[in-house]
Design goal:
Blueprint lengths: L8 E2 L11 E4 L2 E6 L4 E8 L6 E4 L1 E6 L6 E6 L10 E6 L2 E6 L5 E13 L2 E10 L8 E3 L8 E3 L19 H5 L6 E5 L5 H12 L3 E5 L4 E4 L6 E4 L2 E2 L5 E4 L6 H14 L2 E2 L3 H8 L1 H10 L7 E2 L7 H8 L4 E5 L8 E4 L2 H13 L4 E5 L7 E8 L2 E9 L14 E4 L4 H13 L4 E9 L2 E8 L5 H7 L3 H12 L13
Parallel strand pairs: 2-13, 4-12, 5-11, 14-15, 14-19, 19-20
Antiparallel strand pairs: 1-2, 3-4, 5-12, 6-7, 7-8, 9-10, 10-11, 16-17, 17-18, 21-24, 22-23, 22-24, 25-26, 25-28, 26-27, 28-29
Length: about 475
């Protein structure tokens, strides 16, 4: 009979309490710690050790002082340094542990559910680096129940597991939710920033607001870092950029540094840079064959009339490349008015676009909020009376909207073109179908949440939690 086929119980052994059967353990067993996302581990059973221990590295505390947490990483398969499982847990104690060679070490103590065969019970674990040891987990006597019988000459008395689970596509889907350490890059104490903190903490995460302009960087090939207020920033599981238009160059440089470190950024630096520059943004939309209002750009004042002719007849829109929230956007009712506006902008040495005016939109546009691969909400924005701009900051109003498949597809395609996982895509309803007006990489959350009466920030955290879960790794012939 193979080890796998052996019964996990010894039916002829006496019971500890008159009711339960004795559970037989060898000196080495397969166990699982599902709370930590570790479904299969080989552990050494050591009755000489009081407390159980788990191999961990990159151990770091976070969270509030009254409820501290610890985050760490685990190599579940000895000799497979390419497989890393990130974990987090509440700290229940800090304990000095003396090893068999007499060395003392202060370790964090956590609690987790131990699964052996068909049984499960809570145990305490200390965290320590066991790299190089044959077993990455040690099961001490405190974790052993009264009805466990140790057979020191045997191995794997309990059902065997397999490391194959770490190569499975279900690895990411089945990973447990863990407390994350998240940074919100923002200079403003506004609705969006407060909601990101509030919702993250409600889900058990630690969320810190970092002023982007107070970050500075150590740029090198071996250990790139981001510093803040005289200290190196800790490793974050995710960064949510809320980069203002006025600091786009520096803000995207900070995000690039986080990307270099390997931190998951909800929106990448390249996507933010491209979406902020309206000329660049329209070129990206054009490259991906995404419908938009006809747009023209020129540098020489000699090209003014030809520039207007490229767009079509008046009325038309003249807008600054760096315009936000409807500022720097002018409607020219006639060709003469357009020439005057263009002349004025050129006199200010400002870069601008000339764009087709979609009359049938009637001062309305659609704001679609895209998170991941879904449009999670949409609102129809209407400009204030007499104003062609529908921006809420310009006095516009908003209400929830139902969108067509064509509008949904256009919004998703636009967000994907910029590589944005959080985007506000503005569409115009034209007689030719939806036209993408703008893609916002730091969309405001107040208007969309109030219009749709839905918790949209919750959707963002669901996406973050999915993205930072461990991914399966390729099998190796040497893995056992």
């Amino acid at each position: 009979m193979s080890d796998t086929d052996q019964s996990q119980y010894d039916p002829e052994a006496p019971t500890a309490d008159g009711g339960s059967q004795i559970l037989r353990f060898g000196w080495e067993e397969w166990v699982g710690l599902p709370d930590l996302g570790l479904p299969a581990l080989k552990c050494k059973v050591d009755t000489g050790a009081r407390t159980s221990s788990l191999h961990a590295f990159d151990i770091e505390t976070f969270g509030p002082k009254n409820a501290p947490k610890v985050r760490f990483a685990v190599h579940p398969i000895p000799g497979r340094d390419d497989l890393v499982i990130p974990c987090s847990a509440d700290i229940i104690d800090r304990r000095t542990v003396t090893s068999s060679n007499g060395e003392s070490e202060e370790r964090y103590v956590i609690s987790s559910t131990l699964v052996v065969g068909h049984e499960a019970w809570p145990i305490e674990l200390t965290l320590t680096n066991r790299l190089g040891m044959a077993s990455h987990m040690l099961l001490g006597r405190e974790a052993l129940r009264d009805h466990i019988s140790i057979v020191a000459t045997d191995r794997f008395c309990q059902p065997e597991l397999s490391y194959d689970v770490y190569h499975s596509t279900s690895m990411r889907k089945d990973a447990p939710k863990r407390a994350l350490r998240i940074a919100v890059l923002s200079r403003e104490d506004n609705y969006s920033t407060r909601r990101l903190v509030e919702e993250g903490e409600k889900r058990g995460h630690s969320v810190e607001v970092i002023d982007t302009t107070r970050c500075y960087m150590a740029i090198n090939s071996k250990n790139p870092e981001v510093h803040y207020d005289g200290k190196r920033l800790p490793r974050y599981d995710a960064v949510i950029p809320r980069i203002g238009a006025s600091i786009t160059p520096y803000g995207t440089a900070v995000i690039r540094q986080f990307e270099t470190i390997g931190t998951y950024c909800v929106n990448g630096s390249a996507g933010i840079t491209a979406s902020r520059d309206k000329l660049h943004a329209h070129q990206v939309l054009s490259r991906h064959r995404i419908d938009m209002p006809v747009t023209a750009f020129a540098n020489s004042p000699k090209d003014t009339r030809n520039l207007i002719d490229l767009v079509g007849s008046a009325p038309l829109i003249v807008k600054l490349l760096e315009s936000t929230q409807g500022k720097g956007v002018v409607l020219a009712e006639t060709k003469k008015a357009a020439e005057s506006v263009i002349s004025a902008f050129r006199g200010l040495k400002a870069n601008f676009l000339v764009q087709q005016f979609v009359k049938e939109a009637a001062g309305e546009d659609l704001r679609c909020l895209v998170i991941g691969n879904k449009v999670v909400g949409a609102m129809l924005r209407t400009g204030a009376e007499g104003d062609f701009r529908s921006n809420l900051h310009q006095g516009g109003t908003a209400r929830a909207a139902r969108i067509s498949k064509a509008e949904r597809d256009a919004a998703l395609k636009a967000a994907k073109a910029f590589g944005l996982n959080l985007a506000g895509v503005d569409l115009l309803r034209s007689s030719e179908g939806p036209k993408v007006l703008e893609v916002n990489s730091s969309p405001g959350l107040e208007g969309i949440e109030k219009a749709t009466k839905r918790n949209q920030v919750e959707k963002l955290y669901e996406e973050i939690e999915l993205r930072v879960r461990p991914a399966p790794v390729r099998r190796r012939k040497t893995a056992k």
